[in-house]
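Hi R.,

As promised on Friday, here is the backbone we talked about, encoded as structure tokens. Could you run it through your design pipeline when you get a chance and send me back a sequence?
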């Protein structure tokens, strides 16, 4: 294998046809452990495809589990902040589940400000316009950017902030960065603010394998490779990459949760050319491109692990709600020096 870092610095000299923000994707594809940044997977088309899949899938039930909890407890969640309050949705997508919390906040406060945060800015702007039509009294202020950029964007607002991080999306953050990221979020919050996470607790190997099976190929392989080719003038052939799913099971007594690891494996030895970069990337037979930056693609938690995560990050558990099967949890975190309740 060649020294990829040197290859990139030597070969990528002129990339005027590629926006600067996409060069981090090139770096990830040419790193020693090839990977796809989490934010890059969901462009507008990817977001639309994902929204359709998660709402209709018979095996991937995160959306249904979370929706059932929010149906029952949206008012409890809205009650955690005092008016006037701003609702922030990290990785908002279409905000389909968030509507339940929006409705609860409008019922309580009469008016509300909603800040959806997502890299697919055009997509959330379209969704935001529809939300304002559907809910008189709601002001939508879409923010296009990464999770922490969204948190910093609202940090100086005087209103109480209710931050939602739903869809098990927090679990996609590298396990090596989760505590650090929550610690940074804690520094951006005031005493009256709350952070609400939606997290998957389904650690059944067979169920998880089915949930992350071949139904995702059109999004995590075909659409992704199509985007690579469009953004970088690539010659990648989706049929020459195999979608792979691995379940890493850890003891429930460990702080580190079990997780899913997803990747695309090259089905042969091949060279891919990226014309806009003047770059060739060689793949060995079986060589993988991982989702995402860390060793995990999606974590599967238990309540003890969530409590320990909160403690390490400067938070305490204010409240938590689970579905009937107790394989999904929505958990409300408060600054640790404000409240000392825990699960």
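Update: got your reply. Pasting your designed sequence below so it's all in one thread:
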């Amino acid at each position: 294998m060649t020294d990829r870092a040197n290859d990139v610095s030597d070969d990528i000299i002129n990339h005027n046809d590629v926006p600067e923000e996409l060069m981090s994707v090139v770096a990830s594809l040419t790193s020693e452990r090839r990977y796809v940044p989490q934010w890059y997977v969901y462009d507008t088309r990817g977001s639309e495809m994902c929204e359709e899949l998660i709402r209709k899938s018979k095996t991937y039930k995160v959306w249904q589990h979370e929706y059932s909890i929010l149906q029952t407890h949206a008012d409890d969640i809205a009650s955690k902040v005092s008016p006037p309050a701003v609702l922030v949705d990290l990785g908002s997508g279409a905000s389909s589940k968030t509507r339940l919390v929006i409705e609860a906040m409008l019922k309580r406060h009469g008016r509300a400000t909603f800040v959806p945060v997502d890299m697919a800015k055009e997509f959330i702007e379209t969704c935001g316009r529809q939300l304002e039509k559907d809910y008189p009294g709601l002001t939508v202020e879409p923010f296009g950017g990464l999770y922490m950029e969204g948190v910093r964007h609202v940090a100086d607002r005087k209103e109480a902030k209710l931050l939602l991080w739903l869809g098990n999306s927090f679990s996609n953050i590298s396990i090596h960065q989760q505590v650090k990221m929550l610690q940074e979020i804690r520094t951006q919050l005031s005493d009256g603010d709350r952070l609400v996470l939606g997290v998957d607790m389904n650690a059944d190997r067979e169920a998880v394998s089915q949930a992350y099976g071949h139904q995702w190929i059109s999004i995590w392989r075909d659409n992704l490779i199509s985007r690579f080719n469009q953004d970088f003038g690539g010659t990648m052939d989706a049929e020459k990459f195999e979608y792979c799913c691995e379940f890493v099971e850890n003891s429930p007594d460990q702080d580190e949760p079990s997780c899913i690891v997803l990747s695309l494996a090259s089905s042969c030895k091949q060279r891919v050319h990226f014309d806009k970069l003047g770059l060739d990337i060689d793949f060995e037979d079986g060589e993988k491109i991982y989702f995402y930056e860390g060793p995990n693609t999606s974590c599967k938690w238990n309540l003890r692990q969530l409590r320990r995560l909160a403690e390490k990050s400067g938070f305490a558990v204010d409240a938590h709600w689970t579905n009937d099967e107790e394989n999904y949890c929505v958990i409300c975190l408060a600054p640790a020096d404000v409240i000392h309740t825990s699960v």
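One thing I noticed while checking it: The radius of gyration is 21 Å.

Thanks again,
M.
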